[in-house]
Amino acid sequence: MGGRITAIERASEGSARVAVFVDGNRAFTVSEDVAARLGLAVGIDLGETEIASIESNDGISRAREKALALLAVRARSRRELTDRLKRSGHEPGAVEAVIANLEVSGLVDDVAFARAWADERVRLRPSGRRRLESELIGKGVPRDVIARVLEETFTEHTELELAVQAASKRTRRFGGALPAKERKRLHAFLVRRGFGHEVATTVVRELTKEHDGGADDVG
């Protein structure tokens, strides 16, 4: 029910939200920013439709604040950010409005997210195609985007090259020759990183300076 704003008070001590009273009754709360932007003040008459619109604006504002806080920690895919906002209790309509706005501004971009993820893995934690694909699927990136980004990544870097990098970091303390049990562990490590059996076997042989006859040592 509509009426006249009779008071605007801070919702709680230290809060950035205000409680709006209509005809003497506490009607709704909004952020100070929304209240200022909409020009809410004592003496203004509000209809039911206007109150509903104000609450909708406030819901979008709160969802955007949460989204920006999450993005300040790290980049996120569209689905990942959507799921986090909904789990935080924001209304689906507000979430969709915020995500759409962030996409327009470029703050949410699944292609850019997937490229950055793959680039970081290549530089800091070299992984095979299967591992990267699994991680990006887990982040909610669409499969067509994943296929496009992985094609770019593995055109610039071969899986063999990345597997050598990953293995080298793990085997520096052993020098050139690895004990048999370490060769098996290295092979298993590379497979867990998403490299195929053949690539893992080739890399272990290369790093231990073995010939083809050493294949049985790595499984």
Please give the structural blueprint.
Blueprint lengths: L2 E8 L6 E6 L2 E7 H6 L7 E2 L1 H26 L4 H10 L4 H14 L4 H15 L4 H10 L4 H14 L2 H13 L8 H13 L4 H12 L11
Antiparallel strand pairs: 1-2, 1-4, 2-3
Helix pairs in contact: 2-4, 3-4, 5-7, 6-7, 8-10, 9-10
Describe the structure.
The chain has helices at 32-37, 48-73, 78-87, 92-105, 110-124, 129-138, 143-156, 159-171, 180-192, 197-208, and strands at 3-10, 17-22, 25-31, 45-46. Helix 5 packs parallel to helix 7 (143-156), helix 8 packs across helix 10 (197-208) and helix 9 packs antiparallel against helix 10. A 4-stranded antiparallel beta sheet has the order 3-2-1-4. The termini are far apart. A hairpin with a 6-residue loop joins strand 1 (3-10) and strand 2. With 219 residues, it is α+β, with helices and mostly antiparallel strands. The chain folds into 3 domains: 3-105, Winged helix-like DNA-binding domain superfamily/Winged helix DNA-binding domain (Arc Repressor Mutant, subunit A, Orthogonal Bundle), CATH 1.10.10; 110-156; 159-218. The model is unreliable at 210-215 (pLDDT under 50). The chain has 10 helices and 4 strands. The radius of gyration is 27 Å and the shape is rod-shaped.
